[in-house]
């Protein structure tokens, strides 16, 4: 899996099963959105740390993927199972 980012977006290819990653793979993170918290002074380190934090602790107040959000909120064990299966599927060989 790789992260592809431009000045205002971050994207996972293939898309991740995660409440804050759109089905397109784009990350839903306020510091990446020009109309929210984006500032030119934000560093790559801050962006990567923000994505890492979001992956570890999803923001359920701003879901981007309905299925992942629903499973995360209703059945954490199933959510973790799906995430592990996806990680295993796309792990480098």
Automatic annotation (TrEMBL):
Cited Gene3D superfamilies: Ubiquitin Conjugating Enzyme
Annotated keywords: ATP-binding, Nucleotide-binding, Transferase, Ubl conjugation pathway
Gene Ontology terms: biological process: modulation of chemical synaptic transmission; negative regulation of transcription by RNA polymerase II; positive regulation of canonical NF-kappaB signal transduction; positive regulation of cell migration; protein sumoylation
Pfam name, any one: UQ_con
Limits of the UBC core domain: 1-92
InterPro entries, A to Z: Ub_conjugating_enzyme, UBC, UBQ-conjugating_AS, UBQ-conjugating_enzyme/RWD
GO molecular function: ATP binding; HLH domain binding; RING-like zinc finger domain binding; small protein activating enzyme binding; SUMO conjugating enzyme activity; transcription coregulator binding
Active site: 28
GO terms under cellular component: glutamatergic synapse; PML body; postsynaptic cytosol; presynaptic cytosol; Schaffer collateral - CA1 synapse; SUMO ligase complex
Family: Belongs to the ubiquitin-conjugating enzyme family.
PANTHER family, sorted: UBIQUITIN-CONJUGATING ENZYME E2
Protein name stated in the entry: Ubiquitin conjugating enzyme E2 I
Species for this entry: Ficedula albicollis (Collared flycatcher)
Gene it is expressed from: UBE2I
